[in-house]
Amino acid sequence: MTAETTIQDFENSPLSKMLGAKNATALEKAFGYGTVGEFIRHFPRRYVEVGELTPIAELPFDEHVTVVAQVVNISQRQMHSRKGFIFEVTVSDELGDAGQQLKMTFFNGYQARTDLLVGTIAMFSGKVGWYQDHLQLNQPDYAVLDEASQADPRPIPIYPASAKMPNKKIRDLMAHLIEQMTEENLPEFLPKELLDAHHYPLRHQAYANRHSPRELKNAYVARQRFAFEEAFLLQLSLAERNRQIGTQHSIARPRRTGGLADKFDAQLPFVLTEDQQQVGLEISQDLELNHPMHRLLQGEVGSGKTVVALRAILQVIDAGGQAALLAPTEVLAAQHYASITKMLGSLADPGLFGEGEGTGVALLTGSAKTAQRREALLGIASGETGLIVGTHALLGEQVRFAELGLVVIDEQHRFGVEQRDALRAKGNDSVPHTLVMTATPIPRTVAMTVFGDLETSTIKHLPVGRAPISTHIVPMQLTGYRNRLYTRISEEVAKGHQVYVVCPRISDSAGEQGVLLATYEDTSAQSMSVEKMLELLGGLPEFNSVTVQGLHSQLDSEDKQGIMDAFASGDIDVLVSTTVIEVGVDVHNATLMVIMDAERFGISQLHQLRGRVGRGGLPGTCLLSTWLDADHPSVNRLRVIESTLDGFELAEADLAERKEGNILGVQQSGSQSTLRELSIIKDRALIEKARDDVRILMGMPSWHEKYPALLAATKNWVDESTREFLNKN
């Protein structure tokens, strides 16, 4: 019997076959599971064990505790403020002093009402709170203890559960499956050398230990094994994809002495930073190979990524190729075109008959006029245009290149795999080199998991002369600070500078928040909108001679572009906007960024927004307004932003705050490739270990033949959703 057949027999068995139709239907409704393999990966989120027990008399306030106690009284009452009921349980602790009691509270506790009858002995686990002069546990986890469980006090698993599929039911169903687990129907696919090196149990034993550990340490080791398994399969999938990319043919584009790239370097008015030089060398060496470069370039807003990309573009043009720079918006494409032609100077002039010292540079967007579009297409097709900058318009069938050698994708996360493939497919007989850029710092563990098949280059330091940005929290509930905020905006305009004011919403409606007045004397529960801010500033006398304009996504493209052009030219003093200005807006005279209700934005988003100021050599200031009290947890996020300008440090903090969620983007609850055990935050060392092990494996010339079960597991693990996600990067 082959490994694939055995897995099919057990893991892919319908739950209805193994647990009965009624239980299978309940599991599918609760969690979306349909097979044994999906359900046995429903791992406990924690365990309670007798060793954790605390006598009721010694319960510490505001700490997590576990007690074993007998139910001595139950009661139920309706909630006044909303529908539902509160089920209260009073328990007596037989391990503590005689007569010691503790109350438990369950909101809409349907299952607790069924399980916790008077006389029932159970293990309760939760955080100790205080209510009406007594200690209590709110919504505690619990496990009813029968005589067998009291005689064999193993750790009790606590699962993600639902009202109709409670923990006890899950434990009973899982126990039935555990009894049937063997090495034959849950065969091992990780190489024995890896298991021995890391002291991991075989797969079937790891499942048993994870769901029903004899000791807590057994569950921990099993969890490590499954986390490593996920990291290893992911890294192996990425490595295999990278190997396949390496087998593709691309034309080598070596740097030519005395060419455009050398001339560009000679006319640069500044010295490249050490990071820019190092990253430029890495990219240049990639371009000299005859298989396609596949590199991620990440760096802060204003760190000089465009200069690095332009040097690579010129190297490709020197070697007879063309380059395409794909931007997500027309605003950003136009700004790239303007900044690149300015940096190139005379090098952007190919001469009347292509005999000049430069190369043609063209812009192609969806709103381009017919004549401009025709000229751009002719230049690309003839080869006269060495660089084309554009938006999705570059993906059209009528766009044909003479010899596309390099694709540069800005803000790569804004493009789907089909769009990127459509552009790369224009490389005729060879695959063009690819450079993807992002201004959003990527935490190291995310880079290893999501972008593991990309070579990564990082520009960490900003160029000399880039003005610093100071960031301050403004407590709006204090009248003095609130008034000072508006005065600060008018003062900046009086100095001849410009200001961004960012709001979390476009408009307010009576249906959403009742009647709203254009004043901040209302309530802290109201969030500021673009419309409300425009009305508010329009009513303040200090803004009588200030030009204020609104910008948001509901405006049509032509209006948005017109407003941005007016702001860039200095005709607008204060731009009140939503986050549409987060990427692609570069106005050197803008020195102040005010973010209203800043707690409504994430850490990375706040960092991206403030990067819009201080770009012209003038110091920048970012003010984070909030109505929240200083001790509110969300204000801690603002303090993190206030304390550092290091985007990579903030990216780690953002990841920790959001948790990692499903890092692969796979949403199906039953997907085999969902990362259930691997924590991108906590398991950095384990991910690095898996990556090192994969490198050793990939160094074996015939690992596919030596480890057929591993090959089958890798193909089985990467389902269509994950495969598409990996292909996007």
Automatic annotation (TrEMBL):
Domain called Helicase ATP-binding: residue spans: 286-459
Residues of the Helicase C-terminal domain: 481-656
Keyword Hydrolase: yes
A biological process term (GO) from this entry: DNA repair
Record CDD domains: DEXHc_RecG, RecG_wedge_OBF
Signal sequence annotation: none
Hydrolase in keyword set: yes
Listed SUPFAM superfamilies: Nucleic acid-binding proteins, P-loop containing nucleoside triphosphate hydrolases
Pfam family, one: DEAD
Gene Ontology terms for molecular function: ATP binding; DNA binding; DNA helicase activity; hydrolase activity
PANTHER family: ATP-DEPENDENT DNA HELICASE HOMOLOG RECG, CHLOROPLASTIC
Protein name: ATP-dependent DNA helicase RecG
Organism of derivation: Glutamicibacter soli
